[in-house]
Amino acid sequence: MSVPWLSVPEEKPQGGAAGTLAVCFAPTGAHGSTFANWRGLLPEDTTLALITPPGRGTRVDEEPVTGMAAYADAVAAEIRGLRGGRRLVLIGVSLGALLAYETCCRLLDAGVPVARLCAVAGQCPGDFHGDGDEVTVEDARAFVTGTGLTDPELLADPEFEEVLLPPVIADLRLAAGYDGSRTPVPHVELRAVWATDDPHVPEVTVRRWADWTRAECTTLSVEGGHYAHQENPAAVVSACLDGLPGVRPSRRSVLGAGATAVAGTVLGLGAVASASPRASAAPAPAAGGVTFDGDPTDPVGLAVAMIRQNTSNPGDGALTQPLARMLQGIFRAAGVGTEIVPTPKEGNVHFFARVPAGGPARKKPLVLLGHSDVVPAIGDTWTTDPFAGDIKDGKLYGRGALDMKGVNAAFVAALLRHVREGSVFDRDIVFWSDCDEEQGPYGVRWFLTEHPGKVEAGAVVTEGGWVLNQRDGTTPMIASLTCNDKRSLLLRLETSSYATHTSKPFTGQAVIRLGEVLEQLGDWRARIRPNALSRRYFAELAGATTDRPLAEAVRAMLDARSEQQRDRAGETVVRLSETPELHNAMLRTTLAFTSAQSGYYPSIVPGTATAEFRAAFLPGADDPGRIVAELRSLIGNRATLTVVGNPGESEQQALDRLRGYLATPDSSYDTDVFRAWQTAVRRTHPGVRATACQFEAVTSAVPFREQNVPVYGMYPFTVNRDMLKRMHGTDEHIGVDALRQGTETVYQLLAGLRTGA
């Protein structure tokens, strides 16, 4: 006699047709015991039926089933014999949702009514295409570790692994060979349940179940992670079983349920009946009353709303939580899973939204990396309110418009347009807005150190390269995607004399000497030394520009055989460029003077004066130690030049650390992401050259590049010299039409990563 698949741990009197039989399908590698803590939570007239497939539990010595059809046929046959006259509910968790779906289809085909199908934390049939590769033991280990199915220490025990891994391998093979398109969509009431903290199957994935029934689909949320059926069983029971005709939730179930599930199932609030996965609810109010009521695929409206969130960073981090809550409402309304990760500074948070791949992802995620914080808007006088997001003469003004809330808006709008259209990507797409990019200790490096493995990026796109026009100011000429950053060194000057009464001024006062040294340093020019990325960019520029003298100067610079020839030609390139400050920074080491201090009383001539400035270095060009030595030789004994390193760091240690940063390899431009960007530029800017480039500043990319993750930088909209000069400056702005066109470029880039693109 064959061993039964179904068991009923606490059989109750059937009570006629009013009774309910709830058949539970376990997640990958598990069996019926995973629902053990559901006992006592069920409505009084509901009986729990648990499935133990071959190869696990009491059937561990049997050969596992790795085919969906065989699995569903066996369970459906036993349900027909067990059901009697009871109402039938099928509940599947994770992989079990697919098993429940296929079993449901077989029962309906056999004329057996199914009152409800419940998919909990599971991908829908359309995410599977039956083209999965062979599953290995290493795949199973990675799955068990990645999903937290068991304690890693237990997995290290060979005897425990021998018991755990075979059923996991069998279920992974079952999923890899499953093609959801082979089964006709049934007519059955469906409840799709997602867990609010589930990193593997977010809301947007669960909402796609609406396409897999011809009846009503209700989407509900419960508190918990991927295994919420064990972590928060009362909430899952309530979400699955409440609302059936003649059934009332048990008191214990209601008292133990998560607030979201109770509101949706008992009070009739929060449940969203969907006709398709693209149906969306209104944005949920964010903390502090921060909401966004516009179209989330409109980058201009998004950018205005972001600018109006004052996330100024005074140097130790910004208050980014209100903006994060607004973004959370936007993404959740679109059915996209989100997470807000706090830092040790109150109100200073990282925000994540993840659109999962369609089916098992074979590539690591693409991270769209922005930053929420902006530099302060104090000191200089603006002609507009820097946090009003005013639009005048086709320009959007505000702190962060360019750096980088405009880019963030383009990322969000383009991604949500794909979500609205039901796009399926070949990898997860993660939008990450970090909080301490400008200044502060809790930025990307802190996050990757404190949360290792949480963001397993395959590639990153962040701020960087520019789209420039021809000399006419209207015709796009060249687009660049940056593949490395400059790195800077903070230097301090100090001059000294003696302090005295202002009635007795003298020659050689500290303030005057500081001014003289600063003027000398301001006239200093490093040699023109384009690195490999800059040479690649300028070679493309020579072919892109319609300005013949500029093209000739660029070619002369690239072909120069001596430093003197290269310097002369390079200076001509800078002089002829429409964006001279930008191109100068891409060709040499630069000095930028940021502060000067002296004096403490109106009737005292101070005895000391100090100033700070940054020297920015191209990777592969000047050695920082040599430049420091050259500057000291230039100023002689008129001032003291000090390298400002990290606390407790010597000058040599600071220089060596910088050399390490500068030695980080360029991101490869032989990747599908880079090629997708080039294709996107060709579609949105026909005839414009799209090239790899060196960025003139530093971004949050460095920690990723140090891990050999390719990082690319883009400001996808066209800019001019005035716009570039106002970055971090007065009346920062971007063009409204340029922002919309740049968003289209991001959209087309993501389109290149869709399944089958």
Architecture overview:
By secondary structure, this protein is α/β, with parallel strands linked by helices. Helix content is 35%, strand content 19%. It is built from 25 helices and 25 strands. A hairpin with a 6-residue loop joins strand 15 and strand 16 (476-484). The longest helix has 21 residues, at 401-421. The radius of gyration is 31 Å and the shape is elongated.
Question: Topology, pairings included?
Answer:
Blueprint: E1 6-7, E2 20-25, E3 46-51, H1 68-82, E4 87-93, H2 95-109, E5 116-120, H3 137-147, H4 152-155, H5 158-176, E6 190-195, H6 203-207, E7 217-222, H7 228-231, H8 233-241, H9 251-256, H10 259-265, E8 272-274, H11 299-307, H12 321-333, E9 337-342, E10 349-355, E11 366-371, E12 391-392, E13 395-397, H13 401-421, E14 429-434, H14 444-450, E15 459-469, E16 476-484, E17 487-496, E18 500-501, H15 510-523, H16 532-544, H17 548-559, H18 563-576, H19 580-585, E19 590-598, E20 604-605, E21 608-617, H20 624-635, E22 640-644, H21 651-662, H22 672-684, E23 689-694, H23 702-705, E24 711-719, H24 721-725, E25 733-735, H25 736-751
Keywords:
about 750 residues, alpha/beta, eight-stranded mixed beta sheet, 25 helices, 25 strands
Question: Can you describe this structure in just a few lines?
Answer:
The protein contains 25 helices and 25 strands. With 757 residues, the chain is an alpha/beta fold. The strands form five sheets. Strands 1-3-2-4-5-6-7-8 form an eight-stranded mixed sheet, sandwiched between helices. Strands 9, 10, 11, 14, 15, 16, 23 and 24 form an eight-stranded mixed sheet that branches. Strands 19-21-17-22 form a four-stranded antiparallel sheet.
